[in-house]
Amino acid sequence: MYKNLIDLFKENEGKGAVGAFNLHCFEMLPSMIHAAEELDVPIIIQTSLGTAEYIGFEPLIAAVKALAEKSSVSVALHMDHCKDVEALKKAIDLGYSSVMYDGSALPIEENIKNTKEVVAYAHEHGVSVEGEIGSIGGAEEGVVVEKDAAMYTKPEDALHYVDETHVDALAVSIGTTHGQFKSKAKINYELLTELKSKLGDVGLVLHGGTGVSDEDMKRCVREGMKKINVGTELNKNYIEVVSRTFTADDVTPLTSLRNLLGPANDRIKEIVKEKASLFRL
Ligand SMILES: [Zn+2]
């Protein structure tokens, strides 16, 4: 079934966090959904604006919807970190079920103003919205957030932002970094507890999930994270597997590409299953 985040959060209430996995290319898509089906958990497929443009909005949305509609699990298609309000309106018009407006680099009142515009448009179309306050930092899919700009979410700002904008989900900065894969993040649990108690129902979102240890991941879920993003891990593993298969000695120009991409897709399925299991309570 094709759903938005609000539906997924409701369905998943008391069961843990919903995994949001960044789709980097079309080939990964069926593996991600099959992984969710094997675990019988809802899944969020998310893309950057760059990936949506690379695949094409229409074929991407049509494929996710087709797979979702015949699936036993709930699937959302979410636009990750988008700073462009008009691009988000296009995504909503064409059929994304959820979007993230990222105005975290703007002064808070400007972030609020733009987020409100996105929320009004999205909610009118049955689409959920994630916002961001504080700056998570790091680099993802070539989009770099200056390290100096990364800062913890201030609980009073977050409360003001949520009250004003009525976002359904909120990306918070509690110590994780985008694109982190060499080391593990140090999570500020005190801040997470404070955000959770102040913000009530809004779905807190953990970005930079690749840089979080399994133990911390489980604790973040227990402490109330509702959506956890995994992007870098998928990209990194896809590269590792195809680097091996494409350069094997027996590869010729007549070797089927399917045989070279298949193992990478299988690896994606394993990672999604592994992570989604960790997100269960
Ligand atoms: Zn992010």
Overview in brief:
Pfam families: F_bP_aldolase. This protein has 281 residues and is of the alpha/beta class.
Can you put this structure into words, describing what you see?
By secondary structure, the protein is α/β, with parallel strands linked by helices. It has a single domain, classed as TIM Barrel (Alpha-Beta Barrel). Helix content is about 45%, strand content about 15%. The chain has eleven helices and ten strands. It has helices at about 5-10, 30-40, 50-55, 55-70, 85-95, 110-125, 155-165, 190-200, 215-220, 230-245, 255-280, and strands spanning about 20, 45, 75-80, 100, 130-135, 140, 145, 170, 205, 225-230. The strands form two sheets. It has an eight-stranded parallel β-barrel with strand order 1-2-3-4-5-8-9-10, surrounded by nine helices. It has a two-stranded antiparallel ribbon with strand order 6-7. Strand 3, helix 5 and strand 4 form a beta-alpha-beta unit. The two termini are about 25 Å apart. The structure holds zinc ion. Zinc ion (ZN) binds near residues 81, 207 and 229. It comes from Anaerostipes butyraticus. This is Iron ABC transporter substrate-binding protein. GO terms for molecular function: aldehyde-lyase activity; zinc ion binding.
Name the descriptors:
281 residues, 16% strand, alpha/beta, TIM Barrel, metal-binding, binds zinc ion, aldehyde-lyase activity, two-stranded antiparallel sheet
